[in-house]
Structure formats: structure tokens, C-alpha cells
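Problem statement: downstream parser choked on a complex file, so we are re-checking the raw output for the oxa(dethia)-CoA run. The parser issue turned out to be on our end (a line-ending mismatch), but while we're here, posting the original submission so the record is complete.
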Amino acid sequence: MKLKSVGIIGIGYYVPEKIMTNADFEKIVDTSDEWIKTMTGIEERHYIAEDKATSDLCTEAAKKALENANLKIDDINLIIVSTVTPDYLAQSASCIVQKKLGVKEIPAFDISAGCSGLVYSLTVAKGLIQSGTYDKILVIGGEVLSKVTNMQDRGTCVLFGDGAAAMVVSEVEEGYGILSSYIGAEGEDDHILSIPAGGSKKPNTVETINNRENFVQMNGPEVFKFAVQAFPRATKKAVELAGLKIADINLLIPHQANIRIIESAMKRLRIPSEKVFINIQKYGNTSSASTGIAMGEALADGKIKKGDVVVLTAFGSGLTYGSVVLKWAY
Ligand code: UT7
């Protein structure tokens, strides 16, 4: 049986208004604009308003994606939100997004796969459409990392930002859309990258709050080591599965975690910088929103046209990694 071609038919992204510059962090922790720019590539990031949450960012991004696809929310059969920062622990962000988009009954669930969440979600959406289970799926990656950031830890606080990106996934013209997907995980329980307290293992207590275990903790160098291996490996695998070569890539959209990780991947993959989209300087690391925001910007900048081979590659907590190869469908 011939499988349907499935791809993205609309995209939208949204970042909150408030900007935190490197100079702002110089006033909070012992850091410098120079260190942050050189070591990460980040110049500023966006922070959400106190009274808003991940579902608000996701809803705004979803409205833009629907508009971009020329569809209404009633055309959608399933909502998937990828996030590590849902509004609540025991209610999915996707259900809240469903309500905020003004619809009932449409099934909705969250995916937790760290910064690789959008790549995982696209993979799941593709399978569900190819199996005939659903027709049009809203895939959203959204994060409010500013509210889980330890503002006393200079090693992590300068890295993260808030934002969301949404995509409408649907059957597309034959031969276009998602050509391949490769996802993987290396589970670990060592807190290389996690929020140690607030889950079932260690519910929050006065002690965990005092120890600031309710915020992101990361062993930066360990994650760095993992990323510089996993990134090129996942990209190569996905490109191979698509029957293509690295040279066939028109645009590589990497997870925007650290400019040095991206540059290392460019070197290992032997891909020139003009084929790699970078916007880390404006948004920092927005976890599962990162590749989606970058893809939305690249499209708006006219850097993607129909037929282009576009590759999204991400890695993150879990640890997880993955890469999706698309032949752009519109
Ligand atoms: O999205 C998923 C995953 N996250 C990532 O991909 C992050 C991966 N890791 C990284 O990007 C890097 O590890 C960091 C940018 C977080 C850190 O860079 P690094 O080269 O691994 O530095 P380090 O942690 O080994 O620290 C080197 C020095 C230390 O000082 P000492 O001990 O040598 O005196 C740190 O305390 O840099 C210091 N440092 C800072 N200095 C100024 C760490 N953060 C800062 C800071 N400002 N913000």
C-alpha cells in the first residue's frame, strides 16, 4: 500500500513582548555580554508576562499557523503540544489550548521530549495521518522557561527564553512533505538536564524550594558533549533514510541551544553556513519551540521555497535527539 505524503501546510510563531538583554543579566549575576555572546551566541531572549502561561503562547502561535494554512480550528482533528513547561503538572497544555481556541471534542495531548519535542511530535503526527486516523493535526511546541529558570545560577539563567511555534500537518502533494524522520533517546537519571523536584520522585517541599531544585539544573559541559555527537549523527541518519545526501540539504534548521554546538555540527556535516538558519541571538534556547520559531522566521524571510529540502534537527533533556527531513510542500 502506498503511503500518503504528509507535510506542513501552515506555520506560525509567537514570542512574548518583554526582552531580556545580556546587559539585564549583568545586573543579576556575575556575567558579561562578552561571555554570553562568545560562549553561546545569545544576545537577547523574550520573557512572558507574570500572569500568562505556555498555553497562551501556544494559542497565539496556533492562530497564526491556522491563518497561514488558510484553515479554521474546526478543520483540525487533533492537537499535540510539545512542552516541558506545561501550565500545570496534571492537566495537559494541549487541552487548555483547545479551550482557548474555542473548540470542544478535538482530542489533545502533550508530548514531553525536551528540546526534541517538535521533531518527535511531527513524527507522531505523520504516522497518525498516514494510518488514516486523523486528517489535519495542529502540532505546537511551546515553552515558558523563564519561570523554571534559577536566576541565581549564571550557568543556566542566561540561556533560556520563552516562545511557541505551531504547524498544521496534513496530507500534501505526492513526493512532498516529511521524507524521513529519525528519533532517539538515551534515558538517564543523573540530572544532566532536568528540574529535579516537583514530580512524583521528589515533590516540592520547603527544602527543595530552598535548594532551588524546582528550577532547571544542567551539567552544561555534559550536555554539550552529547549534543556535538548526537546532532550530526541524527541529521546524517535522517538524510540517509530520505535517500539523500548532506549536499542535497537546502536549509538546515538546528535547535538553537548554543552557537558553538551549531558550528561544530556544521563542521562535522561539512555544510556551509549559508545553508544553516541561526536566530539564537534573538531568542536564546526556547526548547521545543526553537526549531519551529526558526522555521517560521526562515519562511517569512523567504529562505524556504517549494521543493526545498529542509532539515530540522534537535537534542535535549531525556536525553533525546531527532531529525526530520522535509521536501517543502508550498
Ligand atoms: O537545549 C538543550 C540543551 N542545552 C544545551 O545544549 C546547553 C549545552 N551546554 C552549553 O551550551 C555550555 O556548556 C554552556 C554555555 C552552558 C557553558 O559553557 P562551557 O564552555 O561548557 O562552560 P563551563 O560550564 O565549563 O564553565 C566554564 C566557566 C566556569 O568558570 P570557572 O569554573 O572556569 O571559573 C563557569 O563558572 O565559565 C563560567 N560561567 C560563566 N561565566 C560568565 C558559566 N556561566 C557563565 C556566565 N557568565 N553566564
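For whoever reads this later: The CA atoms of residues 80 and 139 lie 5 Å apart.
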